Amino acid sequence: MEAALSLEGQFQALTDSESEVLWAYYMSTQKFIYIAPKTDVFKVHFQEEFFQAPFWVSASPGKNPERKQVITDLYDDLAGKGLLISVSQPVYFRDRFVGVAAIDIGLNAMRRILETGDCLGESMLI
After folding, report:
1. Domain of residue 106, CATH code
2. Is the bond preceding residue 37 a cis peptide, omega within 30 degrees?
3. Residue 124: inside a domain, yes or no?
4. Residues of the chain below pLDDT 50
5. Domain, as residue range, for 33
6. How many structural domains are present in the chain?
7. Distance of CA 96 to CAs 29, 46, 92, 123, Å?
8. Residue 7's pLDDT is what?
9. Distance between the two ends of the chain, CA-based, in angstroms?
């Protein structure tokens, strides 16, 4: 838990008001989640169902034995912020899977990113 708390500064910077990142968080196999921006604990707190969420499943050893960073398909945010994707990084300590660090980017942010610039033709997010 101490390691997760040490990420507070980076997580807060990732989710500042100008950021495209909706959430930055670490979830542990020890059944806790640390999330930014800070939110009412009654709105976002650890729930067993998080172990079935795309950000977790896609990064877990069963689906990701290579231990690579992964990007989920579009899914509905468990905390109610709409459709988003997660960029998830599995976390290992002494060769043991201990959790997932992730950021969530909302559908509206992805649309804004794709609509910026003055390129001729079409933009695609791959």
Report:
1. 3.30.450.20
2. yes
3. no
4. 1, 4-6, 40-42
5. 2-115
6. 1
7. 10, 21, 5, 40
8. 53
9. 34
